[in-house]
């Protein structure tokens, strides 16, 4: 078992909301922690200026967040104008608390541990022997436990260094307690109901009405938070990535599952029963792939990795063994080795993804668009093809994911981190 442990700011370079909802204490703590995340190390007086909170309120919230292990005083005081008492800035404490992340994809589950800045400390991929839900979730819980044990045994957090991934030298006399886990975030494609904590439907996995939150909580003894992976990645982008400070963000995820998420004014749109973002059956101009719904050219049928791998197999790309069980990264490797068919298929897919971006952006008109797609992430020519298809001024708003090497791990962990940053007093271990 794992161990437990507003309107926008008037300042143009800050995305922090002012405290304005009925639960002012919770909201104030949230904007203080977000200010430390965005600007830390940062003086308390600067937090007060950025958030509109009184200096006394900021000092009180900083004390509460310090007791919970979320922030700490920076080691180096700063003087203001060279006179008066030095300011002692505060920063996130990246050494004491972590969150667990679980992402269930079609071929495998990714389990990970993340620090408070969304950085992946440890990660493991667990291929599915079976997609039976209880077995997949049991393996995920066991995998998290193993990661935490390994992390605790392999590092001693150095309180002087903000990057908790830097191991310190250890002796038998210098052992310190391992990190505590605040909670577990779960993400997957398909229809995921955040409030119910369940995967309502994931056709490619064969899952229906799977009570993920209850199952993982029973196995880990930890709070578990559940959401769709496109929404999770929007939260990751606005907290830790390129979309920080943007008024509205569209995220398009293109894997075996194709879905999207949209956030505006720091809120991700979920819709009734969290069905927002389901775009699998949107018609894509120029699409020809038959879909199970009886039509052709539906977004997911046309762009899925299964379709891509089948086409690569038919084109004779080495290392591709058809659609089921194929690793699409083999296609990227083949393109890097100069195989023309592999390059052609990736560029064609990138252009089609560009058409999907244009379609969604015409409807939502976001300030920023983030795309998670294999070719766009790994190849400059694929990114260029996507941007050319989008065209015009809108192309300047489009970028690949901020987490190219760990996108699935970040998706899972960010579900829990979003809960923390929205309600740090409720989500952190101590309640004093």
How would you describe what is shown here?
It is a single chain. By secondary structure, the chain is of the alpha/beta class. It has 14 helices and 17 strands. The protein has a five-stranded mixed beta sheet. α6 packs across α13. It is globular, with a radius of gyration of 22 Å. The N terminus is likely disordered.
Short description:
With 432 residues, the protein is of the alpha/beta class.
Sheet with the most strands, sense and barrel status: 5 strands, mixed
- Structure classification: alpha/beta
- Helix fraction bin: 25-40%
Distance between the termini: 25 Å
Q: Numbering strands along the chain, what is their spatial order in the largest sheet?
A: 7-6-5-8-12
Count of strand segments: 17
What percentage of amino acids are in beta strands? 15-25%
Overall 3D shape:
globular
Q: What is the tally of helical segments?
A: 14
Mean pLDDT: 87
Unreliable spans are 3-14, 18-22, 156-176
List the helices and strands and how they pair.
Elements: H1 24-39, H2 44-51, H3 55-67, E1 71-73, E2 78-80, E3 83-87, E4 90-92, E5 97-104, E6 108-114, E7 120-127, H4 133-154, E8 180-188, E9 191-193, E10 198-202, E11 207-210, H5 212-220, E12 224-228, H6 229-240, E13 248-254, E14 258-264, E15 267-268, H7 299-303, H8 305-314, H9 329-336, H10 340-364, E16 368-373, H11 374-378, H12 380-390, E17 398-400, H13 407-422, H14 424-427
Can you give keywords for this protein?
432 residues; disordered N terminus; 17 strands; 5-stranded mixed β-sheet; globular
């Amino acid at each position: 078992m794992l161990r437990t442990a507003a309107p926008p700011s008037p300042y143009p370079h800050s995305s922090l909301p002012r405290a304005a909802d009925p639960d002012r204490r919770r909201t104030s703590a949230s904007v203080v922690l977000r200010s430390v995340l965005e600007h830390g190390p940062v003086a308390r007086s600067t937090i007060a200026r950025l958030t509109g909170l009184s200096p006394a309120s900021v000092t009180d919230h900083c004390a509460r967040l310090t007791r919970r292990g979320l922030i700490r005083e920076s080691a180096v005081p700063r003087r203001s104008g060279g006179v008066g008492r030095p300011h002692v800035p505060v920063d996130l404490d990246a050494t004491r608390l972590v969150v667990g992340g679980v992402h269930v994809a079609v071929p495998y589950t990714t389990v990970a541990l993340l620090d408070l800045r969304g950085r992946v400390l440890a990660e493991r991929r667990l291929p599915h022997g079976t997609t039976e839900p209880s077995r997949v979730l049991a393996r995920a819980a066991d995998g998290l436990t193993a990661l935490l044990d390994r992390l605790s045994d392999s590092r001693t957090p150095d309180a002087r260094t903000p990057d908790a991934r830097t191991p310190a030298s250890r002796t038998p006399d210098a052992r310190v307690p391992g990190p505590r886990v605040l909670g577990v975030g779960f993400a997957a494609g398909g229809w995921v109901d955040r409030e119910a904590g369940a995967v309502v439907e994931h056709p490619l996995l064969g899952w229906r009405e799977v009570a993920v939150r209850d199952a993982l909580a029973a196995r880990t003894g930890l709070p578990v938070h559940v959401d769709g992976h496109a929404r999770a990645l929007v939260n990751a982008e606005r907290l830790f990535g390129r979309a920080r400070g943007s008024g509205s963000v569209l995220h398009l995820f293109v894997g075996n599952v194709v879905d999207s998420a949209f956030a505006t004014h720091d809120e991700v749109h979920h819709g009734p029963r969290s069905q927002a973002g389901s775009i699998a059956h949107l018609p894509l101009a120029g699409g020809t792939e038959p879909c199970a719904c009886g039509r052709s050219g539906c977004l997911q049928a046309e762009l899925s990795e299964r379709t891509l791998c089948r086409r690569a197999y038919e084109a004779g790309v080495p290392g591709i063994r058809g659609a089921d069980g194929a690793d699409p990264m083999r296609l990227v490797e083949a393109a890097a080795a100069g195989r023309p068919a592999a390059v052609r298929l990736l560029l064609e897919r990138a252009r089609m993804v560009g058409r999907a971006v244009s379609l969604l952006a015409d409807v939502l008109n976001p300030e920023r668009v983030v795309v998670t797609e294999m070719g766009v992430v790994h190849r400059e020519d694929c990114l260029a093809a996507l941007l050319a298809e989008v065209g015009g001024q809108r192309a300047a708003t489009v970028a690949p994911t901020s987490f190219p090497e760990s996108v699935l791990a970040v998706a899972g962990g960010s579900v829990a981190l979003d809960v923390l940053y929205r309600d740090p007093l409720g989500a952190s271990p101590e309640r004093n």
